[in-house]
Amino acid sequence: MEHVNLRKLVYSSGSIVFFGGAGTSTESGIPDFRSAGGLYEQRTSKVYEPEEILSRDFFHAHPADFYSFYRTHMVYPQARPNPAHLKLADLEQEGRLKAVITQNIDGLHQLAGSVNVLELHGSVHRNRCLDCGISHPLSAVIGDSRPVPLCGECGGIIKPDVVLYQENLDFDLLERAAVHIQQADTLIVAGTSLTVQPAAGLVGLFRGDNLVLINRDATPMDGYATHLIRGSIGEVMAAL
């Protein structure tokens, strides 16, 4: 589908929802997970696989090893929004885009100016003490020189508000995302392999007219897309 046709589609829609994954932020310098060269294809540890490190049990059993990986491979404080983030914020300000549903934890949508952002997997910018529950900013995690960041109030271990393997997604957040998708006339899905459940299953709830799928690689939903675009989400959205 040519970009000019996508532009016509977007500006004729009154209720757009965007559903994005790691590919939305790769042009901001944040690597994705499952593509060739992604984080899961790299041996970042000689002992543990990334999926094991990013699990609840591993965090509690080996917090220092978890944070060594997390600080190096999951947190990119210098990253800035790319054209995709910026265009989505513009569409929301125009009233066309009703919600951004993201599997990312980097906070770049909010930094670009988006307001109604549903972060299914949490955010690196929210952290809390496991003992007293007090909230901490990202600086408390990356600015603490100790192997494991500790709460300044009680000395407890700080845990990022990101959904690890073995943890459940927030049910209320999933419900809100489902309602937005069900009410949309256009759903733009971009930068996601659509293999992570239950988040990917949300796309199956869409009943609108236009399912736009933008991704470099094939996904299980390609056959259901009314408009399938192979390419960079940043370039496609910038062309709007």
From TrEMBL:
User: Which coenzymes or cofactors are required?
Assistant: Zn(2+)
Specify which residues bind nicotinamide according to the UniProt entry for this protein. 33, 105-106
Pfam families in UniProt: SIR2 (PF02146)
Enzyme class, top EC level, equals transferase
The organism of origin for this protein? Paenibacillus herberti
Q: Which residues bind Zn(2+)?
A: 129, 132, 151, 154
GO MF annotation terms: histone deacetylase activity, NAD-dependent; NAD+ binding; zinc ion binding
UniProt-annotated catalytic positions: 121 (proton acceptor)
Q: Which GO terms describe its cellular component?
A: cytoplasm
Q: Which reaction does it catalyse?
A: N(6)-acetyl-L-lysyl-[protein] + NAD(+) + H2O = 2''-O-acetyl-ADP-D-ribose + nicotinamide + L-lysyl-[protein]
Question: What is the UniProt remark on how the cofactor binds and its stoichiometry?
Answer: Binds 1 zinc ion per subunit.
Q: Which residues bind NAD(+)?
A: 22, 26, 33-34, 103, 105-106, 121, 192-193, 215, 233
Q: Which UniProt keywords apply?
A: Cytoplasm, Metal-binding, NAD, Transferase, Zinc
This entry's Enzyme Commission designation comes to 2.3.1.286
Q: What is this protein called?
A: NAD-dependent protein deacetylase
InterPro entries, sorted: DHS-like_NAD/FAD-binding_dom, NAD-dep_sirtuin_deacylases, Sirtuin, Sirtuin_cat_small_dom_sf, Sirtuin_class_U, Ssirtuin_cat_dom
Domain Deacetylase sirtuin-type residues, every copy: 1-240
> Where in the cell does this protein reside?
Cytoplasm
| UniProt gene name | cobB
Instruction: List the lineage, top down.
Output: Bacteria, Bacillati, Bacillota, Bacilli, Bacillales
Q: Which family does this protein fall into?
A: Belongs to the sirtuin family. Class U subfamily.
Q: Which domain of life is it from?
A: Bacteria
Q: Which PROSITE patterns match?
A: SIRTUIN (PS50305)
Q: Which PANTHER family match?
A: NAD-DEPENDENT PROTEIN DEACYLASE (PTHR11085:SF4), NAD-DEPENDENT PROTEIN DEACYLASE SIRTUIN-5, MITOCHONDRIAL-RELATED (PTHR11085)
